[in-house]
Write a structure and sequence with these properties.
about 375 residues; alpha/beta; six-stranded parallel beta sheet; 12 helices; disordered C terminus
């Protein structure tokens, strides 16, 4: 027998008031009704002024009857500062927002323009507006830009967590909490996947305009240089405007199709997805088939799965980085004993998403020997 609407809404109200906040999907599971049904009930209770709606979360209008929050109040603000035009960080933001919404904290997003030092005035303004804590991913397009931010970041007087950024050992902000992906492990996944498919010559193309890009270059060159099964490899910029550090050797700024031919590479790894998709298009225009003639691995997995063919990609745990960073910030704000006061540097492991852009060398040889046209280029 279906439960009366009024009774169901009373149960929703009681559950939320007991906890202070609850996720809509959790309420649906507990009441054994659809998420749509709970949303309708929540909308009505919100109109009556008995609940407050958030992003997938509903909060009570009266204090929760559970343990105190350690000084945090519903509606306190946390500032989140990220670079403009950085789609990689979208999932990180969603992960962080879920945690902050559930805690009843307001999420004040600030977008830093593409200019050196753009984050500092945004952070100062957010603190003046009463932000209790900070989640930040500075752009840091060069080592000089990173070093210029060290002093003021280290001097901040509110709990601060760096997202996908790890200051160099011994630097001023080395003592800040940070949560990021283990990009060395991501590079390792890509190389081992290709070696396991029989590829022995490969090209790595990364950007140089972010800490992640610089970490990836160091990881790829070390892993490939020390790998007993990699016969030859080369590194290059993934795009002409992808680096500022320089100076670069001629082959490091070469056109990737030409570099692939020079190395005799049968595989390429690119950071990030957009550059990888564009390379596949350029190779196709030159008559080079992916994956029959060249296997391609993208790094980031933001849009890699939407390409044709869908690109095998290293997928950092973007949403989880945001969730863990927000949880760590909450612990700091609440003075939670589990942190012990110690600075935390959390690394989360990426995954490899195998799709249609990589294949075994033997498979490629079989496809060219069964009568298909040889599409190699000079």
């Amino acid at each position: 027998m279906r439960e009366p609407v009024d009774l169901r809404r009373q149960r929703i109200l009681a559950a939320v008031q007991a906890r202070g906040s609850a996720r809509v999907r959790d309420l649906a599971a507990e009441l054994q009704v659809s998420v749509v049904t709970v949303r309708r009930d929540v909308e009505e209770l919100t109109r009556e002024g008995r609940l407050l709606r958030g992003h997938g979360v509903v909060r009570s209008t009266v204090p929760a009857r559970e343990a105190p929050t350690g000084g945090l109040e519903d509606g306190d603000r946390v500032a989140v500062v990220v670079p403009a035009r950085h789609s990689y960080l979208n999932e990180i933001l969603h992960g962080a927002r879920t945690v902050l919404d559930e805690a009843g904290l307001r999420f004040a997003l600030h977008i830093a323009p593409q200019a050196a030092g753009a984050e500092r005035p945004l952070v100062e303004r957010a603190l003046e507006d009463g932000a209790r804590g900070l989640l930040i991913a500075p752009r840091w397009r060069s080592l000089a830009a990173e070093e210029a931010d060290h002093g003021w970041l280290a001097a901040l007087e509110v709990p601060t967590v760096l997202m996908e950024r790890r200051p160099r050992p011994g630097s001023a902000p080395h003592g800040l909490d940070s949560v990021c992906s283990d990009h060395w492990y991501g590079a390792h996944l890509a190389v081992e996947h290709l070696v396991g498919l029989g590829h022995r010559r490969m090209v790595f193309a990364t950007r140089e305009d972010s800490p992640t890009a610089r970490s990836l270059r160091a990881a790829f060159t070390r892993i490939a240089g020390e790998h007993p099964l990699v016969e030859d490899w080369a590194w290059a910029l993934s795009a002409p405007d992808a680096g500022q550090e320089g100076p670069y050797a001629a082959h490091e700024t070469a056109e990737l199709p030409a570099l692939l031919r020079k190395v005799g590479a049968s595989a390429v790894v690119l950071h990030g997805d957009v550059d990888a998709v564009m390379l596949v298009q350029r190779l196709a225009a030159d008559g080079v088939r992916v994956p029959e003639d060249c296997s391609v691995v993208a790094y980031d997995d933001v849009v890699a799965g939407l390409a044709t063919p869908a690109l095998t990609a290293v997928s950092p745990p973007k949403a989880e980085v945001g969730r863990v960073a927000a949880e760590l910030l909450l612990q700091r704000l609440r003075g939670a004993p589990e942190t012990g006061g110690a600075v935390r540097r959390v690394e989360l492991l990426p995954r490899l998403m195998v799709r249609g852009s990589t294949r075994r060398i033997d498979d490629a040889a079989d496809s060219s020997s069964d009568g298909s046209t040889d599409s190699s280029t000079e």
